[in-house]
Amino acid sequence: MRQVALIFALLIASVLQATLPTTAWSGWAPAPLMSGLVLYYSLMHRRALVLEAALLAGLVEDSLSLMPLGTTSFGFAVAGLIIERYRDDVMEHQWTTHVAFGAMLNAGVTLFSMAMLLKDELIHPPLFHMALRVIGSFGLGGLVAPLVFALMNRFETTLGGVEAESS
Fold first, then answer.
1. 104-117 per-position pLDDT tens digit
2. What is the 3-state secondary structure (H, E, C) of the chain?
3. Residue 144's CB: how many other CB atoms inside 10 A?
4. How far apart are CA 63 and CA 165, in angstroms?
5. What's the pLDDT at 163?
6. Which of 32, 51, 37, 47 shows the shortest CA–CA distance to 151?
7. CA dihedral in degrees (61, 65, 66, 71; nearest 10)?
8. Would the N or C end of the chain have less CB density within 10 A of its end CB?
9. pTM, whole model, 2 decimals?
């Protein structure tokens, strides 16, 4: 049942992420709904489901953009495992945790993806645009992550069983 919920959430998040408008102040960064899902699964579920969510969310996000497949998946997987490792040290239902981790996760994955594209010389943006995109990703991650967490928590509560699992 958890995989069905994950696939449904990925489907809804991918449609919303593709249709929500982007803004210039964020460097045209999309709303980080996929990274919000990775954050939710990292704080609430066992390690295997965290990796599944990270890999699938990354593949969907790479497919929606013109990224080489697997780039975002790797970033999401590393970030998800780091968050999952420290979830016992934080209050996983606190909105400030979601803001902080959401901002760092989204900015970190954006920076990693940008570095991979620059390494392969697939993009040549001005330095100002790259900085604006990372800062915008940081801000959007902090704004969107608590909303995604609350919606996913309510969704899984409705389905039954939201308690954090041990790894």
1. 999 999 999 999 99
2. CHHHHHHHHHHHHHHHHHHCCCCHHHCCCCCCHHHHHHHHHHHHCCHHHHHHHHHHHHHHHHHHCCCCCCHHHHHHHHHHHHHHHCHHHCCCCCHHHHHHHHHHHHHHHHHHHHHHHHHCCCCCCCHHHHHHHHHHHHHHHHHHHHHHHHHHHHHHHHHCCCCCCCC
3. 24
4. 30
5. 57
6. 37
7. -20
8. N
9. 0.93
Rounded Cα distance between 46 and 55, Å, is 15
Tokens standing for residue 8: 């449904």
Average the pLDDT over 142-154 and give the result.
Answer: 97
76-87 pLDDT tens trace = 999 999 999 999
CA atoms of 50 and 76, how far apart (whole Å): 9
Residues 6+ apart with CB under 8 A from 105: 35, 38, 39, 79, 83, 141, 145
Q: How far apart are CA 120 and CA 151, in angstroms?
A: 37
